[in-house]
Design goal:
single chain; alpha/beta; two-stranded antiparallel ribbon; 5 helices
Amino acid sequence: ALPIYNLKALGINVTELISGTSTKTRIIDKRSNYHLVRIDNDVECDPINLNSVDDISKYNAIVISDYEKGAVTYELIQKVRQEYSGPIIVDTKKRELGRLNGCIVKINQLEYERCTSFNDDLIVTLGSKGAIYNDKQYPAGEVDVADVCGAGDTFLSAFTYQFLMSNEDYDSAIEFAIKAASITVQQDRKSTRLNSSHIPLSR
C-alpha cells in the first residue's frame, strides 16, 4: 500500500499532497499466492505546489515519497527543509542525495549503487539482510517471501511511526520498520496495510 494508507492505518493523522497516480498491475499465482510479475503504467506528474499547505510548522513530521515522476523536485525538498524545522523523511529514487542534507533519506541497495552523492543522514535497506544506518547493520529474520512489492513503502511508514512514537530513536524505528516490511512481504495483495498491533515491539 502507498505510505499514506499505512500511516493512516497506524493511527497517524495525515495531510496529503499528491500529483498524479501510477497504476501497478500484479499477476499473482492463485495456488501459491506468490507474486509473478508487476506491470507498471506510470504517469508524468506536475511538480507539487507547497503553497497549498497553510502552515507546515504544525506537523510532527513531513514524509516525502518520491518515485521520480516529476511531482517532487530537488528544489521542493530544499524549500521544505528551509521552511520546516522538524524531521523530514524522504524515500527517493534521486541520485544526487548530497542536495538533501538535513533530511532523513531512505533508499534501497540498488538505488544506493546508482547515487552520485550522499546526504548526511542515510538509511539503506538491504532486502532480506535488513538495513544499514551510520555504519550499523540491522538484521532481518528469515521469512517466506510471497511478494516484495510495497516493502519499501511499508518500511517508510513504519519507520516514521516509530520514529515519532520513540522520541526520534533511530534504532527503535529501524528495527520496527524491518519487522513491518518482513510481515508485508509474506502477505498476499489482499492484506497489505499495516496495523501496529501486528508488529512485535520486543526484540
